[in-house]
Design a protein that fits this description.
2 copies of one chain form a homodimer. Chain A is of the alpha/beta class and about 425 residues long. In chain A, strand 2, helix 3 and strand 3 form a beta-alpha-beta unit. Chain A is built from 15 helices and 17 strands. In chain A, the strands form 2 sheets. In chain A, strands 7, 8, 9, 10, 11, 12, 13, 14, 15, 16 and 17 form an 11-stranded mixed beta sheet that branches. Chain A has a 6-stranded parallel beta sheet with strand order 3-2-1-4-5-6, sandwiched between helices.
Chain lengths: ~425, ~425
């Protein structure tokens, strides 16, 4: 029976989940995989957290050096989150000849190039399935299943917190603030929700996943990022009437003009397979030139689903002693050869609040026309939702057009007409 | 640049797809993976098929021995289908030190134990992602992502032909025979459709996938199998009214009483993520004790999607020189320790055609009650659909009960009442 010693750095939700899976499945892994996997050490500032999980006192390390010098430890699970000290600790254990399994998306996104280099240098493994989309097996699918494809499009719902908030807003008609407060009470959102609601978390993951999709480094800094804080119930309601549902999407595209990477809220058709991905579920919808469309769906967060991804990597590491490293040149910045498209093309949803409806519509469409924007659908009147007393809402869905044209048209409408553009939301057809 | 020589046995839909992907992506694989993959030989009885794909005459082998002795060939793609000569050819090339990538579900299902043994003996790789669900990355997900889970339930739509037929029947109200004829005309069904419509193909795949799920050999012979040939438009219509859609499901369960494996048509709720998997798409819905629910969805068949799975395995094989073999003891028969549950529990849909409606319902429910079957839902009258003139349809959805009780109740109704049980279909809640 092969013995595998594991250390866990950080016993928060994810590290605690990995611990509880490993300890409750020890017999199962012996039988199913011929591996005797034991947690030999943990590093956790809050000792009582370790003790409450039933971890023996002698296994609670008081420094990273103890983990590094522990000969029983083969694989280190890094589930601390944040850049430091996770980064130095990961480098230290790799120098000590231990493989790393990480769930730390911010670290792998920002310093993956450095970690990959260190892993290669030290001939140890580095695994990061748990950095993206919890239990959804997307990292390995891109690495080892879809690698024969030119991936042309990646659309992901890869942040559970925002998906929970938007689903609640959609189903219950509540405001962003109300639902956020509720999510915070229930532990679905952090006290400081910025990382999630402003799209940072989704952008870290998109950086990791789009690099795998497009076989080249896509740095965080090159990702266009917008959060969900400005989404109103009125927009959700108007979208619904037009057959759309709103999601925070992480989009990667590779086309003739270059690579396009963006995180922002967007309307998608209710018939799209991603539209029914609700609550804290995550899903990725990937289009490749051979495989056509593939969707992977599952729990995007949580102790056990993310723990499942970690433990999957631990078993993979233990059963595949010959390690592979980043399949592309994993550098700090993008390759100079990579062209990024920033003037996106998209369909748009515009909600306009008109002072005086009569005559305004033709003025609005005239301005849109001036900037080459053609209108696919219009709804007028109070039924469009959310209008203030004495004002009228008007919702326009455009055909696919350039973002810069939309921005110019919106400025012109706000400047020249008795109409205010209340919202501009992209529409993914 | 690492050179990788490939041979393809059989240039049918799948082999031809793999060939066209490999030949059109040669430069891409050099750039993305540092691999120069070339097709060095093919074995295809119909030489004109090879020539029409643009394969040079000198690469068309005239015997398997030529492939075995070709030093340029590292990896052999077996896409012939059927047991012989695919089996002998696979064993021969492995003896000659070549790795095998197969899309042959029947062969891997029936002789996987023998192929795994030969691969191990010859220190070559054996890959079979393409045997199941076309482009859906389910084999590797079970092997390398979800292996830390006790999988409790697997539900798959893993046969594209039957899903196409049932989707058409559902959407267009046509009969099985009509849609089958149409599918045959369009090439979605074989001239002899038995392998698909009687559930053999799905059962081969379920044997492979449930063995991976449950870490033990699940032979084809232990799978309960029923096809879709008896499904009527009347049943589809009645199911629709009750909020169900019919699918050919491949189900694997592992519980306290043992393992349950079955392929049969079943109603699932329209809200279930599998319900919207239409046409020739495939999907698997997997529940593990840590990961909770995961669904993988994509094209279940076709030259390029299945070719994508094959090429994925070729690249994996070329970049992972240390091979792993079946993670469980892959034997011809199930382990004596494996207990199979054959007296399933399920909810049931019964469609009854009553000679005289008045009074029959209470007699029917009395018989159901006698066998411990409780009724969850009933619809009566011509609206239930499909009734003959002068007769009345009655549809009963039961609560979960044992299959043997349902069989007894159905016999009793047919024997004792003026009512005929026209259909019995399982309902997956």
């Amino acid at each position: 029976m092969k013995k595998v010693g594991v250390a866990i750095l950080g016993l928060g939700v994810v590290g605690g989940g990995a611990y509880s899976i490993l300890s409750s499945h020890r017999d199962f892994y012996m039988k199913a995989h011929g591996l005797d996997i034991t947690v030999e050490a943990v590093l956790e500032l809050k000792r009582e957290r370790a003790l409450s999980l039933g971890i023996e006192e002698r296994k609670i390390a008081s420094s990273i050096e103890e983990i590094c010098s522990n000969p029983e430890v083969d694989i280190v699970i890094e589930s601390m989150g944040g850049v430091e000290p996770a980064r130095s600790f990961s480098l230290a254990v790799m120098s000590a000849g231990k493989s790393v399994v990480t769930s730390n998306k911010e670290l792998y996104c920002k310093y993956g190039y450095e970690l990959e280099k260190a892993a290669k240098h030290n001939h140890v493994g580095l695994f990061y399935e748990a950095t993206c989309a919890g239990g959804v097996p997307v990292v390995r699918a891109l690495l080892d299943n879809l690698e024969g494809n030119r991936i042309t499009s990646f659309i992901g719902i890869i942040n559970g917190t925002t998906n929970y908030i938007l689903t609640k807003m959609t189903n219950e008609g509540k405001s962003y603030k109300e639902v956020l407060a509720e999510a915070q009470r229930l532990g679905y959102a952090e006290a400081d929700p910025e990382t999630d609601v402003e799209g940072y978390d989704a952008a870290y993951k998109l950086s990791i996943l789009s690099s795998l999709c497009f076989h080249t480094k896509i740095p965080f800094a090159d990702i266009h990022r917008e959060g969900i804080t400005k989404i109103s119930s009125a927009d959700i309601l108007c979208g619904k009437r037009l057959g759309y549902v709103i999601k925070l999407l992480a989009i990667g595209k590779d086309g003739e003009k270059g690579i396009e990477v963006r995180v922002h809220p967007a309307f998608i058709r209710t018939a799209h397979p991603l539209a029914s991905v609700g609550d804290s579920y995550n899903a990725v919808y990937i289009t490749g030139d051979s495989v056509e469309d593939v969707m992977l769906y599952g729990r995007g967060a949580g102790a056990l689903p993310t723990g499942s991804a970690i433990v999957g990597d631990v078993i993979y590491c233990a059963t595949h002693p010959q390690h592979r490293y980043s399949p592309f040149e994993n550098t700090e910045n993008a390759s100079p050869a990579t062209k990024f498209v920033t003037n996106f093309e998209s369909a748009y949803y515009l909600r306009l609040v008109a002072e005086d409806r009569a005559g305004e519509l033709s003025k609005i469409t005239a301005i849109l026309g001036k900037y080459g924007i053609s209108v696919a659908q219009v709804i007028q009147g109070p039924a469009a939702g959310g209008a203030q007393a004495g004002k009228a809402d008007l919702v326009v869905i455009t055909h696919v057009t350039r973002e810069e044209n939309v921005n110019k048209a919106v400025s012109a409408i706000n400047r020249d007409l008795q109409t205010e553009v209340a919202s501009v939301i992209r529409v993914v057809e």
